[in-house]
Amino acid sequence: MRFRHPDGTVVHLAYCTNVHPAETLDGVLAQLRDHCEPVRRRLGRDRLGIGLWLARDAAHALVSDPSALRDLRTELDRRGLEVVTLNGFPYEGFGAEEVKYRVYKPDWTDPERLEHTTALARVLTGLLPDDVTEGSVSTLPLAWRTGYDDADAEKARTALLTLAERLDALQELTGRSIRVGLEPEPGCVVETTGDAIAPLTAIAHDRIGICVDTCHLATSFEDPHTALDALTTARVPVVKSQLSAALHAEHPHLPEVREALAAFDEPRFLHQTRTSTAAGLRGTDDLGEALAGDALPDGAPWRAHFHVPLHAAPAAPLTSTLPVLKSALARLVGGPHPLTRHLEVETYTWQALPPALRPRARTQLADGIAAELTLARDLLTDLGLKELP
Known about the structure:
The chain is 40% helix and 20% strand.
C-alpha cells in the first residue's frame, strides 16, 4: 500500500510475512498464493506491499539462480504484490516449535550473518518495483547481550562496514539503493534506540541505520518522541519502522492480572518482560520468569515482548501498547517530512496467542491481517497522508 505524504514523498506500508512459516522458495511462493493475495483481496486493493521474510535456504536459492529471482518477481506482479523491504532478522527456523534464543544466531560476530544480509540486499534489488529505487532490510541488533565483549563489538563493526561497502557497490551495479537497519530488541546488545546511537555513529554510513519496532520501543518503556528526536540529532537514519504493539499489564501485582498474563506465556518465542522503576529499567528474559515469584518488581506496570494484533487489544485486565505506536507514527510520518518511507506491520505471534484467540483457519488469519492493515491505513490517513491506488 502506498501513501502520499503532504511533502510529496511516497510512504510504503506492508505486512511482514514472518507470520507464515516457510524455509524454502517453494514455501515462499505458496505464501503468496495462500495468504498474501487473499489479504490483498480482502482489502479491495489492486496492489499490496509485503515485507518478505526469506530464510537462509530461500535466500540462497534466489541469489544463486537469476531465473528463480525473475520467477519470484513475476509471481509477485501476477498476484498484485510488491516488495520494498525484507525482514532479515530471523535466519532460519522461525516457524519451529521452539525458537526462543535461537533467533539471535548467527549474530553480527559471525561471517554468515554478513553473507546472508548481503544476499538479501542482492535479492531485493531484483524484487523492487520498476518505479522504486530504494529498498530496506531489517536485521538483528548486533547480538544477544550475554557473552558479548569488546572483541565481539569490533567484529560486528567491521562486518557492518563491509556491508556498507557492498551496498555502495550494489547501487553502482544496479542503480538501486538498499539500506539496512539494526532493530533494537529487549535483551540484546542494542536493546533501545539510545543503545543504537554509539555503534551506528561509529560506523557513520547512511546505508546502515535503525529499524524502529514500536513493540520493542514500548516494551523498554521508551518515549517515542524523545527516542526519535535523539536519533535525528545523532543523524542516525530510520531505515524502516515495524508497526507493532506489546502486551501491557497496568497492575501486575493482582492475582487476576498474573493469571491473564500466564495465558500468554507460551513455548515458542521469547517474551522479554520489563518494568520501569525509580532505579531504572528492570526485566526478565521471558514472561514465565517474571511470573515466577519475585523476579520482577510488580509495583508498576509490566510490558511483555508479545506482538499482539493491532486492532484487537487483549481483554481486560490486560491491554496493548497501541498508544505508543500511534505516538511513534505521528513523529515518524506526521511531521513536515517523514523520518522513514518504509512501514511494516509485524504481528508474527498470531499462532502463539492463547488458544481461544488464535485463528482456526487460513481465512481467519487473512481477515485478521487485513484488519491490522486497515487500522494502520486509517492512522496514516488521519495524519494527513493520502492513500494511492
